[in-house]
Amino acid sequence: MEVKVLNISGKETGAKVQLPESVFGIEPNDHAIYLDVKQYLANQRQGTHKSKQRNEIAGSTRKLYKQKGTGGARAGSIKSPLFNGGGRVFGPQPRDYSFKLNKKLKSLARKSALAYKAKDNNVVVLEDFNFDTIKTKNYTSLIAALNVGSEKTLLVLPSQNNNIYLSSRNVQKTKVITAAELNTYDVLNAGKLLLTADSVKTLEEAFAK
User: Which of 187, 181, 2 is nearest to 111 (CA)?
Assistant: First the structure.
């Protein structure tokens, strides 16, 4: 699949980039995508939720009232889950939600997500660029020039670039990552996928391994 290369002013440079068929042209695997997104979201969970059981509640252990003759149900402890302030039955406990996926499956999921973006013509390729200074205006001008201000965008850089990354941090509905940080969730969550010419090569080399 051949895509025209744009500059940061949103105009065609005359150059074209061939999106590798081995990455952007595969038949997407929906189940692989589901598993990879599920793992990503599970890894975001802290798992620090905790409630106290009756053995952890501070309270007297004396019997509240006599066993018989009150007309009410028998009660032995103020820490019973039946009473206000008592322990909770089967409450949440700290746990780790993460789980393992094979590298090949994760790679297939990411290629599938990229293939969907290419199939829907939601991939924009930019010539390699840099900002001289860290300014939010630099990035907002880029988004405006590409006419993608109303959509969520994901810009993939071949390597870390602080000027571009820091310029984008205050811009809503945008995210900037490196090719090494690419994940299925971010690709699918974005309306437009912005790639630089070098990041296309980096992705091709990464998925070829």
Answer: 187
pLDDT band at 44 (very low <50, low <70, confident <90, very high): very high
φ, ψ dihedrals at 67, nearest 5°:
-65, -40
Alpha carbon dihedral 6, 7, 8, 10, in 10-degree steps, equals: -50
For the whole model, what pTM was predicted?
0.83
For residues 11-24, average pLDDT: 89
**Terminal Cα distance for the chain, rounded:** 21
CA-to-CA separations, 124 to 5, 67, 138, 165, 196, in angstroms, rounded: 8, 76, 18, 18, 8
d(CA 39, CA 186): 13
| 145: its two tokens | 């020039």
